[in-house]
Specification:
about 75% helix; Growth Hormone, Chain: A; 2 domains
Length: about 475
């Protein structure tokens, strides 16, 4: 929901300093999710509880993250980046300490909820402090470095978590999170200047915020894109809660090998994002969505048919997961830009709500998964359901041809950044997609219609 920065003075921090701080805080969210997942099966025994109860630790994390994302932007616009970020990071450290010292599943749930609330500020604030100070190539250089970290951390964190788990136990994972949170808090408190020089207290007033969200939630086109993203990426977030149990307990992988197996998901998404980035130079982003949804459908079908092949294997589980992740990379550019392009006067609210819907998909999926006694059964039931819902949303919420109009203004890159993979679970490739979308919006190719930032392959009426 952040307003575009007004740059009237020189930057208050150097490029290098901004880049270091930005990369440090942006990894808070993906590290807290991916480092933790290999420990889920071990925690069932440690707390003498059920897999369903442990899946709720991810549900509450997503819950805290989702609602904090809606609040972080307006609060930092109103009161400044520093005080808001410090408040969120203190909450994260407190949650990490609670989780590390928890002696019961109830306290672990409290700790994870606080971690989700605190981690939500990392991605939003890291990009805000860049946009407050820099534009053009200087901004792009810093954001590319941040994007690189978002590519690396989800890929290596599960392996690192598996190594920590196999050597010193699950408590150490939360100790690492606590130490990292303290490092983020210290660096931000001592090394970060306030970058928001246009603070506006009215940005935090609930009335305009609620009205914007009501407008978006009643818009058929926005909801079509939001539900497609919420069911596809939300499905992948749900898998974060299920895969550790399936791969470690049913397939028989060690936590360390499980971490390496997760590279299949990240690698597949990276391949899809690279392909999408190249195709977007010549092809409408909206034209990629059906192909991406076809991949998601194939992945969902693979999950549905997997029980017929017998006991789960790496191929029968990670194969559909990789195909699903590849499809998401093709869906995200068109769906994200389609959702944002029609609302130039509330693009910040639209980007935050799109992110909320994606995380909300993960929240809903993990909550439903907690109802299943067997994680493998949950996987083979929930993922096909997500695939079916994504196809239905895309088909049934298509806007009638009678509502065509004039082209909409392109989405700003800072809004695309907030809306693309808010938890940074897959991470890699998102910056290339955003850059390709933005460049095509600025310099459309001759004879290429419709614009990549139109809705349903149609144009949109201008705001009156």
């Amino acid at each position: 929901m952040s307003r575009p920065p007004v740059q009237t003075d020189a930057p208050v921090m150097t490029e290098t300093r901004t880049a270091v701080i930005g990369t440090l805080i942006v990894t808070l969210g993906p590290l807290s999710l991916a480092l933790y997942t290999p420990a889920l099966p071990m925690l069932v025994e440690a707390f003498q509880t059920t897999p369903a109860a442990l899946k709720l630790t991810l549900s509450v994390y997503f819950f805290g993250f989702a609602f904090s994302q809606l609040a972080c932007g307006p609060l930092s616009d109103a009161y400044g980046r520093r005080p808001v970020a410090l408040g969120f990071f203190v909450t994260y450290v407190l949650g990490s300490v609670v989780a590390a010292l928890s002696g019961s599943i109830e306290w672990l749930l409290v700790g994870r909820a606080l971690q989700g609330i605190g981690a939500a500020a990392g991605i939003a604030i890291s990009r805000a402090i860049v946009r407050d100070q820099f534009t053009g190539q200087r901004s792009a250089r810093i954001l590319n470095l941040i994007g690189l970290m978002l590519a690396i951390v989800p890929a290596v964190a599960p392996t690192l978590g598996g190594v920590i788990l196999g050597t010193v136990g699950w408590h150490a994972i939360f100790v690492v999170m606590t130490l990292y949170g303290l490092a983020v808090l210290t660096v931000f408190a001592m090394g970060t200047a306030e970058t928001n020089r246009t603070r506006d207290r009215s940005a935090a007033r609930p009335g305009p915020v609620i009205r914007n969200y009501r407008t978006l939630l009643t818009d058929r086109r926005f909801m079509r894109a939001g539900l497609v993203l919420g069911t596809t990426l939300g499905g992948l977030y749900t898998m974060a809660a299920l895969l550790p149990f399936v791969m470690i307990e049913r397939v028989g992988l060690s936590p360390t090998v499980f971490g390496f197996a997760m590279l299949l998901q990240t690698g597949s998404y990276t391949l899809g994002a690279t392909l999408a980035g190249r195709l977007l130079r010549r092809v409408d982003a909206m034209r990629l969505i059906p192909y991406g949804l076809a991949c998601v459908a194939v992945g969902g079908l693979g999950f549905a048919l997997a029980p017929l092949t017998g006991e789960p294997t790496v191929a029968s589980v990670m194969g559909p997961t990789a195909v699903w992740a590849f499809g998401i990379a093709l869906v995200m550019p068109g769906a994200t830009s389609d959702a944002l392009a029609g609302f130039p006067r509330m693009a910040g609210a639209a980007s935050a709500l799109i992110g909320f819907m994606q995380i909300g998909g993960g929240l809903a999926g993990t909550a439903v998964a907690a109802l299943f006694a067997d994680p493998y059964t949950a996987t083979t039931a929930i993922m096909p359901g997500f695939a079916a819902l994504s196809l239905l949303s895309y088909a049934l919420l298509r806007v009638p041809a009678s509502r065509r109009g004039h082209p909409a203004k392109p989405a700003r890159p800072e809004d695309l950044e907030v809306a693309v993979d808010p938890v940074a679970l897959v991470g890699a490739g998102g910056e290339e997609i955003e850059e390709a979308l933005h460049q095509r919006a600025k310099r459309p190719r001759a004879g290429l219609k419709p614009s990549p930032l139109t809705r349903d392959g149609q144009s949109i009426p201008k705001s009156k």
